[in-house]
Amino acid sequence: MYAGDRKVAAEHQSDARTAGYPLVVLAATGVVLLVLNILANADRQVITILVRPLEQDLRLNDFQMSLLLGPAFSLLYAVTGLPFGWAADRLSRRWIILAGAAVWGAATALAGLAASFGQLLAARVGVGVGEASLTPSAWSTIVDVVPKSWLALAVSAYNTGVTIGGAVGLVLGGWLIDHVAAGPLAHLAGLAHLRPWQWVFLLLGAPAVLVAPFALLLPETRKDHPQTDAPPPTWGSVFQLMGQNKRAMAAAFLGGTGIVTITQAIGAWTPTFMHRAFHLSATTVGLYFGVLLFAVGTFGHFFVGATVDALYRRGIKDAYLRYPAAALLLSIPCAIAAFLSHQAWLFLALIGFFYLTTFPTMGVCLAATQLMTPPLMRGRIVAAFLLCIHVVGSSIGAPFVGLLVTYGLRDPSKLGAAVCGVLALTGPLTIALLWQGMKPLRAFEASAAVST
What is the rounded CA–CA span in Å between residue 57 and residue 51? Predict the structure, then answer.
């Protein structure tokens, strides 16, 4: 049933490669989407550097903080991603992204005015709802205009916003926490009562609101799809497509979920671990981990994307699942050793290997689903994927660590052991799930080649 859709997708990709879009349009599209992704991830990540002051001022424990680090954002991000995925397939992507950026920027700023756990929880929910608008529209735009043989590199370039934005949130947040109290902001009329962590939220939320109108520069690529008299695909058609390729789709969905569980357990708690284990200041933690994210993590996106594309062009058609499995096999032992180490430099070196080789692979798993998806279903497949990885992965990774520390080990100094427990459980399971999807993905690629 979907052979014709695959043919349409292949023809559209060929047109984008030959006639294509003007380079200035492609460049503007890439820049706008990257900047928005950077801002989104800065607003999302900055709370990880604020754990200590938030726990002190709002009287929170590690488990409450884990809810703010994980489910408060991820659950609403995942659930609202479904209607945003539907909208990305049918409505103006420009206006969807514009509205979402304004919402998440405003919600981040409002977090700076929170006076209780409940108010901060509500603000994090707002950040999740706003940011849910970006990925389905951004991904479906990218996949529409980029040839399949360069898809992994293109989405990896977009996903550098995750590491760049995370680095911005960590470095700027850490510096502000230690210095804003003595700076000119502390003496502004009517705002002198604000604490440093409140300034961090206010200052990082404003740029997203200001940049949001630039989303109107994005092309409405869906207009370039061949017009037919057939009705637009329904959610039933999407589920039917997933059922026809269930083993490969399940491996990509569940493998990506496992990767997110691991990355959340590591990324959400690394700043707090570095403070507790190595007695470093917020500025130092933000600088060290932020630079690592920016340098190693950003290069890692290009490295992973280029590697997967090279493998795919050489005929390894299951590269989108094979590479993540191999990367996990190598990096999980290194990550566990990192959280058992007693030297900051050794910790950063070992965790840097994870961010170089494995952190970007969630995007590779999502790209695998797009290989099997016709153009007018891409937004909803992205939304369904995000629902899976965030409802399960993001809601388990950080909270499970906080739960183990607060109610299991009952010792904040054993944070590293709690992270290791999550990694030891999740790593092998994720590798097995990815491995199960390799053969079905190769079979799909072979059938698609015959159909087109």
Answer: 10
| Domain membership of residue 33 as a residue range | 3-215+234-451
| Residue 145 resides in a domain | yes
pLDDT in tens, 403-452: 888 888 888 888 999 999 999 999 999 999 999 999 988 888 887 665 55
Asked if pLDDT for residue 249 goes beyond 80, the answer is yes
Q: Is 230 exposed, middle or buried (0-12, 13-18, 19+ CB in 10 A)?
A: exposed
Is 227 a member of any domain? no
How far separated are the first and last CA of the chain, in Å rounded?
A: 13
**Structure pTM?**
0.71
pLDDT of residue 385: 87
- Return d(Cα 317, Cα 145) in angstroms, integer: 21
Note whether residue 32 is domain-resident. Answer: yes
Distance CA 88, CA 84 (A): 6
d(CA 116, CA 442): 52
pLDDT at residue 235 greater than cutoff 80: no
Q: What is the CATH number of the domain that holds 322?
A: 1.20.1250.20
Q: Residue 226 falls within a domain, yes or no? A: no
What are the tens digits of pLDDT across the range 255-291?
999 999 999 899 888 988 998 899 988 788 888 888 8
CA distances from 82 to 86, 330, 371, 377 (A): 6, 34, 20, 12
Count structural domains, the chain.
Answer: 1
